[in-house]
Design brief:
mainly alpha, single chain
Length: 276
């Protein structure tokens, strides 16, 4: 256990010094504050508080930025060690390969949690005070968004480990990470949309589509957050689809949790077969 904590602490120090992660955190904060300003601007009759509108907007932003930040953290976790020639030294320590990966995972999740809490926490507080205080209960939505974003990020960190452990060059791992991000958050939804247009009211639209939507951890995250607020008020059409989904409410987050457990186990299996 001590070895796991030591590795996690090392990854936290490295992650916080990584300029890509610092830049991504600042970009996340900048986009969040822009959405706060847009959400608090007058725009007709919106019968809800500014914080709720901002949380709805940030949940869509998170689908794109949080997985990208997570993959930037994870893509060189193993391949980078091989490239630098330090993997053999790491594995020579009296810590199992599984414990090494768990330590890296905990450290990377901690770095991601700092970035998300910093960006969304400030944005939520700005929206709260910009709207004149309002109902403090609305801040619960910000906390829910931060927690679910960390879970989503943890999922893509674990997925990134598979790419990192499967290759021996950092550049190849980075290319795989970008490909994973592009497929999971862009191409997958485009494919679902194409299937809906082709199927209309067929079997795909009624049976297959709801399962595929929940199957994707990014979509499951978005559905959870949008179902937790008044989706009709904020102008989203996701709320109406909630009743047709195989999972609803908090159960929707079982998808990213399951993805995290499975991919972390798979990446551990791959790492055990890697020769430094």
């Amino acid at each position: 256990m001590h070895g796991v904590i030591t590795i996690a602490a090392t990854e936290i120090r490295i992650g916080l010094r990584n300029r890509w992660i610092i830049l991504s955190s600042l970009i996340l904060l900048a986009f969040a504050l822009i959405l706060v300003l847009l959400g608090s601007a007058p725009g007709g009759e919106v019968k809800t508080d500014a914080v709720t509108v901002v949380v709805a907007s940030l949940s869509t932003l998170s689908v794109y930025l949080v997985p990208l930040i997570a993959l930037l953290l994870a893509f060189d976790a193993i391949a980078g060690e091989i490239d630098r020639g330090t993997l053999q030294l790491v594995l020579a320590s009296p810590v199992s390969r599984g414990a090494v990966l768990v330590g890296k995972f905990l450290g990377h999740v901690a770095v991601l949690a700092i970035a998300v809490s910093f960006g969304y926490g400030i944005a939520g507080l700005v929206a709260f005070f910009a709207s004149g205080g309002g109902d403090a209960v609305a801040l619960i939505g910000v906390g829910r968004l931060i927690a679910s974003s960390i879970i989503l990020g943890a999922t893509f960190i674990a997925i990134g480990y598979i790419a990192s452990a499967s290759v021996r060059q950092t550049g190849t791992a980075a290319a795989l990470a970008i490909a994973i991000w592009l497929f999971a958050v862009v191409l997958f939804d485009l494919a679902l949309l194409g299937g809906l247009l082709a199927s209309q009211d067929g079997v795909f639209a009624r049976v297959v589509f709801p399962w595929l939507l929940v199957f994707n951890p990014a979509d499951a995250f978005r559905l959870y957050n949008m179902s937790a607020i008044d989706a009709v008020v904020v102008g989203s059409n996701l709320g109406g689809a909630g009743s047709a989904l195989p999972l609803s409410g908090l159960a929707t987050m079982l998808s990213p949790v399951a993805w995290t457990a499975i991919t972390l186990g798979l990446s551990t299996f791959i790492l055990k077969r890697v020769r430094p």
